[in-house]
């Protein structure tokens, strides 16, 4: 895909019409993929990326769970407001021209999203032209689906990102949730999910058409699965918002603590000791809680009901006795039957040298059979009392688990709870000391504010833990529902053997699940290797990162130097930013999706050395088309000289206070940058 032109009309700070050419160029053998749009803060750089996302995705461009009323309010606020309200427009539009290869055919699209304010309502229109012909003219929903096919909303998180998103990716707590949906969309796993949903719908229709009794059960399970997925999406949205709030609070706390350190040296010295103690206790408490959670996810629940555990042990012993007696009885019966078979042969008695009458022989055999049956010791147990019906290995494992749960586990669990309570009391004392520490009245309001922020942070962290637990519960329910759904489909297939289509649906569902799991595993390995390559290329430090691992369930990232894992916190602030960029870069490379990359203030938080690394290494290679939105402080004269060999054009955007609107000027770059490239590589 190549973005050709963006045209804004009365959008945001842009009054009237403003047009930006965006396509990359090539001068001789040198590609120039970068379009730079530079200006001061607040002049409308971010508005350009917002306009592109809005044009392509509409409501979805604003994030998860945006209501129609919120969306219309947003559209109304994005209509340009000039200095003179008498000349305020009532309509605005965003138009994007792009080239896209679809089914092997290069196509030119013109997408225009316009809206008009009428009284208290906002009327929106969407038009798409393909090769000059209008498509989906009267079907807005169909047009939105076409745009989602061209640019999946999840892909925008990798290809269109800003400094704030990089900051969230740099934080370990936020990176996993951001990468989860993005990676699934980029690697096509969401397509697998849609296929599975379509197969479920097909199976339901087929069951209803065939008059299968299980159709209602299948329909109920599908509705339940949809409800659980909606609940999961709601929780994910709330969790993302909560994590953003946690990041904001942590930033505020760090800022307030820095102010306190500057304003009161003696207080700062004492506070640093208390803070270190608090951090140590907080870390230990978190570790202790994880240990307790591990107990709870292990054998601890068995210890809650010891009577039940003992009864299970008794049941296991009784069933073992039953199984042994049954085995002995079978052996006795086989020997008796063998003896009866031999006794029917006269040759057997002649070989023994015994001459008995027929009645004598029968009497002897009966006495011998009775003797064999009575030789089997043990209590007679009815087969109806066998409930668990477990194997010897399973009985042995259950017996060991329950024995441990009734003995060692309660003691360990109680000790862990006591240690947690002791550390919590110590932490409470430290928090009290922190509150009592300041003597100067000038510091007291700041300390109180800091305490309030810490309380809010604690509440948000507790909410985060609750949400994670709710998500785990939901995931368990989703797995159970999907398993039941699969079982019902198999039952329908078995009942209706003549319907080969239902059998194919059941097999295809299993194959799709296996395919998704294997695809995710392979792609995760590729992303892990590529993250290391991209990070080391950006950081330019030998041996800083040797290996990375991404958990396929949580998408959390673990870093390795040699064979030792280390925390992100051991990286400098700039290196953490570069790691976030490496994650985005690696995901784009592995996905292989030929999309443009748009970066809004991507290097504002980097120092000079890391900015140079970004300009030299990342921007020229990020994609075949790169659009950079930056301040003149980020891309200063020195950075511009380094970037110029890769520039197709440079826009300067300025706000005109007289017109009350943003204006732009453009400079094109067309000469072959041989001398510049030689100087840059030197």
Task: Give a summary of the structure in a few sentences.
The chain is an alpha+beta fold.
How would you describe this protein?
Among the domains are: 188-301 and 414-513; 304-413. It has a six-stranded antiparallel beta sheet. Strand 3 and strand 4 form a beta hairpin. Helix 7 (189-210) runs antiparallel to helix 17. With 682 residues, it is an alpha+beta fold. The chain has 21 helices and 17 strands.
Features:
682 residues, alpha+beta, six-stranded antiparallel sheet, six-stranded mixed sheet, 21 helices, 61% helix, elongated, disordered C terminus
Number of strands: 17
Number of helices: 21
Report the structural category.
alpha+beta
Strand order of the largest sheet: 2-1-6-7-8-9
The main pleated sheet reads as:
6 strands, antiparallel
Produce the secondary structure layout:
Layout: E1 2-11, E2 14-21, E3 25-27, E4 30-32, E5 34-39, H1 45-57, H2 68-77, E6 91-102, E7 105-118, E8 121-130, E9 133-135, H3 140-150, H4 153-159, E10 160-162, H5 163-170, H6 172-186, H7 189-210, H8 215-263, H9 265-296, H10 300-303, H11 306-343, H12 346-352, H13 358-374, H14 392-406, H15 408-436, H16 444-495, H17 500-539, E11 547-550, E12 557-561, E13 564-566, H18 573-591, E14 597-600, H19 608-618, E15 626-630, H20 637-643, E16 647-656, E17 661-668, H21 674-681
Helix pairs in contact: 4-6, 5-18, 6-8, 7-8, 7-17, 8-9, 8-16, 9-15, 11-13, 11-14, 16-17, 17-18
């Amino acid at each position: 895909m190549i973005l050709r032109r963006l045209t804004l009309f009365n959008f945001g700070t842009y009054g009237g019409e403003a047009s930006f050419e965006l396509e990359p160029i090539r001068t001789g053998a040198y590609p120039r993929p970068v379009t730079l749009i530079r200006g001061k803060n607040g002049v409308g750089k971010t508005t350009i990326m917002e306009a592109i996302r809005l044009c392509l995705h509409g409501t979805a461009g604003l994030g998860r769970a945006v209501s129609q009323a919120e969306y219309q309010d947003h559209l109304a606020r994005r209509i340009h407001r000039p200095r003179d309200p008498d000349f305020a427009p009532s309509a605005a539009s965003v138009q994007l021209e792009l080239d896209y290869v679809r089914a092997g055919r290069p196509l030119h699209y013109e997408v225009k999203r316009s809206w008009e304010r009428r009284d208290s309502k906002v009327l929106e229109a969407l038009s798409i032209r393909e090769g000059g012909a209008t498509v989906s003219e009267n079907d807005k929903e169909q047009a939105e689906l076409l745009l989602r096919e061209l640019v999946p909303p999840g892909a925008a998180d990798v290809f269109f990102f800003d400094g704030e998103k990089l900051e969230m990716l740099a934080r370990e707590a936020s990176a996993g949730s951001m990468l989860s949906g993005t990676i699934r969309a980029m690697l096509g796993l969401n397509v697998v999910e849609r296929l599975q949903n379509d197969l479920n719908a097909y199976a339901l229709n087929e069951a209803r058409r065939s008059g299968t009794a299980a159709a209602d059960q299948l329909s109920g399970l599908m509705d339940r699965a949809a409800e659980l997925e909606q609940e999961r999406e709601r929780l994910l949205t709330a969790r993302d918002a909560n994590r953003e709030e946690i990041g904001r609070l942590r930033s505020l706390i760090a800022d307030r603590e820095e102010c306190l350190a500057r304003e009161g040296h003696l207080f700062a010295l004492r506070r640093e000791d208390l803070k270190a103690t608090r951090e140590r206790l907080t870390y230990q408490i978190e570790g202790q809680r994880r240990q307790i959670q591990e107990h709870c996810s292990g054998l601890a629940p068995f210890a809650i009901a010891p009577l039940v555990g003992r009864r299970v042990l008794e049941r296991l012993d009784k069933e073992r006795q039953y199984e042994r007696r049954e085995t002995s009885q079978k052996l006795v019966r086989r020997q008796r039957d063998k003896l009866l078979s031999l006794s029917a042969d006269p040759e057997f008695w002649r070989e023994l040298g015994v001459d008995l009458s027929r009645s004598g022989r029968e009497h002897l055999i009966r006495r011998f059979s009775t003797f064999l049956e009575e030789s089997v010791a043990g209590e007679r147990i009815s087969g109806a009392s066998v409930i668990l019906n477990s194997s010897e290995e399973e009985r042995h494992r259950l017996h060991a688990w329950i024995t441990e749960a009734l003995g060692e586990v309660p003691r360990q669990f109680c000790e862990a709870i006591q240690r947690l309570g002791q550390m919590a009391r110590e932490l409470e004392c430290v928090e009290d000391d922190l509150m009592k520490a300041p003597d100067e009245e000038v510091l007291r309001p700041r300390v109180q504010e800091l305490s309030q922020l810490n309380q809010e942070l604690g509440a948000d962290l507790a909410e985060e833990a609750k949400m994670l637990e709710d998500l785990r519960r939901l995931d368990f329910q989703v797995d159970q529902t999907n398993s039941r759904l699969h079982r019902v489909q198999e039952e329908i297939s078995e009942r209706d053997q003549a319907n080969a289509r239902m059998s194919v649906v059941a097999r295809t569902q299993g194959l799709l699940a296996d395919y998704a799991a294997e695809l995710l595993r392979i792609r995760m390995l590729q992303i892990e290797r590529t993250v290391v390559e991209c990070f080391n290329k950006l950081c330019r430090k030998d041996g800083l990162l040797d290996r990375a691992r991404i958990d396929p369930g949580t998408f959390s990232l673990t870093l390795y130097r040699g064979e030792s894992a280390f925390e992100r916190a051991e990286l400098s602030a700039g290196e953490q930013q570069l790691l976030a960029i490496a994650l985005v870069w690696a995901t784009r490379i592995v996905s292989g999706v030929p999309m443009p990359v748009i970066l809004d203030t991507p290097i504002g938080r980097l120092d000079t050395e890391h900015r140079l690394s970004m300009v030299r290494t990342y921007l020229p290679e990020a994609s075949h088309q790169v659009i950079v939105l930056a301040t003149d402080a980020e891309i200063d004269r020195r950075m511009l000289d380094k970037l110029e060999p890769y520039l197709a054009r440079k826009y300067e955007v300025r706000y005109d206070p007289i017109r009350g609107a943003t204006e732009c000027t453009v400079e094109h770059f067309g000469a072959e940058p041989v001398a510049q490239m030689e100087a840059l590589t030197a």
